[in-house]
Amino acid sequence: KAGVTQTPRYLIKTRGQQVTLSCSPISGHRSVSWYQQTPGQGLQFLFEYFSETQRNKGNFPGRFSGRQFSNSRSEMNVSTLELGDSALYLCASSLAVGQTPLHFGNGTRLTVT
Amino acid sequence: DQQVKQNSPSLSVQEGRISILNCDYTNSMFDYFLWYKKYPAEGPTFLISISSIKDKNEDGRFTVFLNKSAKHLSLHIVPSQPGDSAVYFCAAYTSNTGKLIFGQGTTLQVKP
What is the DSSP letter of B3? Predict the structure, then answer.
């Protein structure tokens, strides 16, 4: 069974640009959530999607958004990139809402210059 | 306000001995507690979890203990192996929010 797949693995963008990251959950998993990992703030929750609906959102500005498709695949978008957005972005999937454990992909390393 | 804390940034243990990683939390509403292991440039790998209604869960060399009155949990690894060397994250989960709140991590080094 394939794990959580995130693409691309690495991205370099310039301040002010926008970026889209992709996540394919484990087959049969319908809940997808996103996390940001930085050295200073650690692992922080961005948002969670289930049945194409955002269920919860963390304390991030509106420049961070996401969506989920009918096949449970998810994308997150960051607009007007800032230097502080440089981070490892991790996607996690679980069977359903409120179900643990969450299984993580290997992340997308975003560098903003 | 950090709801989940791992107060030891690092731990060094001899191969074959027990590794004990600790975690404290402040919110009594968490439903589950999970431990993840992470290598650089990879995502966290799920190790073991415990429901808030239990006080112990065991899986092979890994055992998690939960002390609700002290709002404290610990992960025991016995015996420790060099391949266990990694960063270990404690995380707390609330079903109605669907989010994991992570501690800052503890770097475990197991020396041969």
Answer: S
What is the SS3 string spanning B33-84? EEEEEECCCCCCEEEEEEECCCCEEEECCEEEEEECCCCEEEEEECCCCHHH
Query: CA-CA distance, A80 to A64, in Å (whole number)?
Result: 10
Model confidence over A6-38: pLDDT tens digits? 999 999 999 999 999 999 999 999 999 999 999
Is the CB of B59 inside 8 Å of chain A's CB atoms?
A: no
Which residue among B93, B102, B105 places its CB closest to the CB of A100? B93
